Structures are given as C-alpha cells and as structure tokens.
Amino acid sequence: MIAFHYLGWKAVLHMLPASYLFWALSNTSGSELDVLSPIVSMVACYIGFLGATVVVQKEDIGNKISTWKYFVIAGATSSVVNGLALSWLQFADTPLSALVGYVVGDTLGLAVCLVVLMYAFRLLRLSNELN
Predict the structure, then answer these.
(1) pTM for the structure as a whole
(2) Fewest beta carbons within 10 Å, which of 30, 71, 72, 80?
C-alpha cells in the first residue's frame, strides 16, 4: 500500500521481481502457484488501492482520517480484490474458505507490518530527540 501510495502504478515494476522470487521459492518448497500469480496479485492490489482511494475522496473523509487508517482501508480493500483474483486463478470453483484465508492473511499481514513500522518510526523519533 505504501509503495502504491508513493509510486502509483510504477510500484508494480518495483515489487514484481520480489514477487517472482517469492513465487519461485514457494514453488520449490512444494506449492504449485500459477506463473501469473504475482502479476494478478499486483494488479488486483492496485485496483483495490484505487477503489479505496476513490471511496475516501468521494466521501470527503480524506482529510478526516489519518494516513495509517487510510492504509488499513486500502489494504483491506486490496486484500478482498486480491483474494478474489487469486482464488479465481488457483481454483476452478472458488471455495469461500480460500477467499477468507487470503483476506484474513493479507489483512493480518498488513496490520502487523503497519504496527512494526509505527513502532520503528516512533523509536527513531525518540532516539533523535535524545541526541
């Protein structure tokens, strides 16, 4: 979300090599992910990010919410779109459990990353104030 926020669609170009590295590592460890999974995931996340951005701007709540709340909304929206896209790609009949698994995993991963970043920046700010 942060990359899409700052780089727009160009973030896909920056994140795609790491996504394919993860795809290769996953496939060598026994998973059988489709070769298009990283591309579908990036596009789906960007579409979800754009959807959240449009909703926040249309409802005129963009000035009323803080940035981290906006990232959570955009991340949750992106995880739903990503879950739908990857479920459609991986399974002929998309089971609801797979969709829920993708959404819960993506959203929890987003929350953990945002909390870690929040504390890291807070620690950095406090260390700068002490010096």
Answers:
(1) 0.70
(2) 30
